[in-house]
């Protein structure tokens, strides 16, 4: 079977304005929110000289079908964006499985932009006992046609596109859901059908006594508008909180509710069951109550460990755009000293650590410099805004805590000592540990594409020359025992409440000034490679220093510091300053 060829555009979907009104006694089953993209979000190219059958299909699970028992699916709706060409016919169909026998079909001639209603030759009656139904349409093309529409929100049930029966799921691309719907008709169309689409606690662990932050998505799937629907929240069976949505939910409307559920009624730490119940404010009975309830489990703990976000930055002196990362890393270090750990992984200059550089260039998937890897799970640009947003979006807690110490021995070996504790007991812990030695205030001749201000302001670099002598921080000088760490350092069996002491030795790497050297430890999930926790220490005990002579004011003993215009400023000023005749970053 030949592969489906898709050229997918990673762009925001702009919505095509169409008439999505329904007749009395009608509802639509689908995930695109009744929307069509203005232009295709995907292009399918058929084989030259052959006719390829292209299909789009969505899945409707039993949990949704049960609400429409006894009603009929009478048509398949195909939403097509504006395009230069369309196929001659569309064939709509319903099946019990994605590639199974069609149980209802229909054909529409001369489709066009907008919603195309494909009437089924034999309407399908929903029994309410189906495991699932697949609703889709297909067409034959002999040339390139750009008529696929992804719109609304992405659903894992709404994104299958196929060629010659070979379907691929594109929900991971997050383009939205296919503009495919089933038209439901009958005499007993539900009038009142609110539902809880999803719910989650923002954090799987909450400190005892603090509100449980919970996000609840509600929807109206029937014809009567819901004025100020109510969500009741219970903890371990006791009603503790009632939230009234302040607006109106019309047909197909969805709303995300961000709730702070008070937990004062729970006196002891442990697992807590959260029961949510969605109701009509006017007391109306919901015609399908099964989807009005939702349950979650979270954990309350007297102790919580806050997670550190680790950013490993791909950078180099040759890279003129990499000053963006220097400014971003300095901003994050200054504003988030306890929750941010930045590591500069250099390429092509005097500060390369070969193993680290090779990993960054070949194993992470970065496509250029500068780039940054967040917790070894996500690649971003290392500008301050993007790093800050990722920190704010990051789950703030970790199940483990670490404290790090580092000491240099007479053998020129650094001994790293980690105190490790976990909030859960694990019979087979899957953790790796890696240790990093870093150095600040290292001199470098940096290429600077922001010189002259043509690219806009960049932390003062717009006032510096195209190649500037500066000092840089957070430079990786060595990583031990390897970039991915050792699987033998963390015990396989971990008991909640017990503190484990872990030690590791490594040869001190080449450094410039021991007074500016510090260390970090990274804890990774062995299966996924994700950094789940980190810790740092500001210096290495016993490290012999080569402190450079510091110029000080003869009368006050305070260092003399100047700004880029040569004006004397406070010695504690932050940003790019001139100190001892050298341009440097100052935190």
Characterization of the model:
The protein has 587 residues and is mainly beta. It is built from four helices and 46 strands. The strands form 14 sheets. It has a six-stranded antiparallel sheet with strand order 9-8-11-6-14-15. Strands 19-27-26-22-23 form a five-stranded mixed sheet, with no helix packed on it. Strands 3-17-7-10 form a four-stranded antiparallel sheet, with no helix packed on it. α2 (323-335) crosses α4 (384-393). It is globular and about 85 Å long. The chain starts with 5 loop residues before the first strand and ends with a strand.
Briefly characterize the structure.
The protein contains 4 helices and 46 strands.
Write the layout of secondary structure elements.
Layout: E1 6-8, E2 15-16, E3 26-30, E4 36-37, E5 42-44, E6 52-61, H1 62-65, E7 72-80, E8 89-95, E9 102-109, E10 114-125, E11 132-141, E12 145-148, E13 150-151, E14 160-163, E15 166-169, E16 177-178, E17 180-185, E18 194-201, E19 205-207, E20 212-220, E21 226-227, E22 230-235, E23 238-244, E24 248-249, E25 254-261, E26 270-279, E27 293-301, E28 305-306, E29 309-315, H2 323-335, E30 340-346, H3 354-362, E31 371-374, E32 378-380, H4 384-393, E33 397-398, E34 400-408, E35 413-422, E36 431-439, E37 442-447, E38 467-472, E39 475-480, E40 499-507, E41 517-525, E42 531-537, E43 561-562, E44 568-569, E45 575-579, E46 582-586
Parallel strand pairs: 19-27, 29-30
Antiparallel strand pairs: 1-5, 2-4, 3-17, 5-12, 6-11, 6-14, 7-10, 7-17, 8-9, 8-11, 13-16, 14-15, 18-20, 20-25, 21-24, 22-23, 22-26, 26-27, 28-33, 29-31, 31-32, 34-35, 35-40, 36-39, 36-41, 37-38, 41-42, 43-44, 43-45, 45-46
């Amino acid at each position: 079977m030949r592969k489906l060829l898709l050229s997918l555009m990673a762009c925001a979907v702009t919505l095509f304005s169409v008439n999505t009104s329904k007749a009395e006694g009608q509802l639509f089953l689908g995930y695109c929110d009744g929307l069509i993209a203005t232009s295709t979000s995907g292009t399918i190219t058929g084989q030259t000289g052959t006719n390829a059958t292209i299909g789009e299909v969505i899945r409707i699970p039993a949990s949704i079908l049960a609400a429409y028992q006894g009603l009929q699916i009478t048509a398949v709706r195909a939403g097509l964006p504006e395009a230069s060409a369309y196929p001659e016919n569309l064939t709509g169909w319903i099946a019990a499985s994605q590639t199974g026998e069609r149980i209802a079909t229909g054909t529409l001639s001369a489709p066009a932009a907008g919603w195309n209603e494909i009437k089924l030759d034999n309407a399908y009656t929903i029994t309410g006992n189906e495991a699932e139904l697949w609703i889709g349409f297909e067409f034959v093309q002999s040339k390139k046609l750009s008529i696929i529409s992804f719109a609304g929100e992405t659903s894992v049930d709404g994104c299958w596109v196929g060629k010659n029966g070979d379907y691929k799921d594109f929900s991971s691309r997050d383009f939205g859901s296919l503009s495919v719907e089933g038209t439901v008709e009958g005499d007993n169309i539900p009038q009142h059908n609110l539902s809880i689409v999803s719910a989650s606690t923002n954090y799987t662990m909450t400190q005892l006594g603090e509100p449980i932050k919970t996000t609840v998505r509600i929807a109206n799937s029937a014809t009567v508008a819901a004025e100020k629907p109510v969500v009741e929240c219970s903890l371990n069976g006791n009603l503790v909180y009632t939230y009234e949505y302040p607006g109106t939910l019309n047909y197909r409307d969805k709303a995300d509710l961000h709730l702070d559920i008070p937990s004062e009624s729970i006196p002891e730490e442990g697992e807590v069951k959260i029961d949510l119940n969605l109701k009509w404010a006017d007391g109306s009975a919901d015609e399908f109550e099964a989807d009005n309830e939702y349950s979650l489990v979270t954990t309350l703990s007297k102790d919580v460990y806050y997670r550190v976000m680790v950013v490993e930055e791909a950078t180099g002196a040759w890279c003129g755009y990499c000053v963006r990362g220097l400014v971003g890393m300095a901003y994050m270090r200054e504003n988030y000293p306890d929750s941010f750990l930045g590591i500069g992984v250099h390429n092509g200059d005097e500060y390369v650590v070969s193993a680290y550089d090779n990993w960054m260039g070949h194993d992470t998937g970065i496509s250029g410099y500068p780039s940054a890897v967040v917790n070894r799970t996500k690649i971003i640009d290392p500008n301050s805004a993007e790093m800050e947003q990722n920190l704010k979006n990051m789950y703030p807690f970790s199940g483990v805590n670490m404290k790090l110490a580092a000491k240099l021995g007479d053998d020129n070996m650094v001994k790293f000592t980690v105190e490790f504790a976990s909030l859960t007991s694990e019979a087979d812990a899957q953790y790796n540990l890696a240790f990093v030695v870093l150095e600040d205030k290292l001199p470098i001749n940096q290429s600077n594409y922001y010189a002259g201000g043509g690219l806009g302001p960049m932390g003062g670099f717009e006032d510096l020359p195209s190649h500037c002598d500066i000092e840089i921080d957070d430079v990786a000088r060595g990583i031990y025992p390897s970039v991915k760490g050792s699987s033998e350092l963390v015990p396989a069996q971990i008991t909640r409440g017990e503190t484990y002491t872990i030690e590791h030795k490594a040869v001190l790497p080449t450094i410039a000034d021991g007074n500016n050297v510090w260390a970090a430890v990274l804890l990774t999930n062995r299966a996924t490679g994700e950094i789940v926790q980190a810790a740092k220490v500001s210096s290495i005990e016993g490290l012999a220093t080569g402190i450079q002579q510091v110029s000080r004011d003869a009368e006050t003993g305070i260092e003399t510091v100047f700004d880029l215009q040569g004006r004397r400023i406070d010695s504690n000023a932050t940003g790019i300053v001139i100190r001892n005749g050298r341009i440097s970053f100052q935190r």
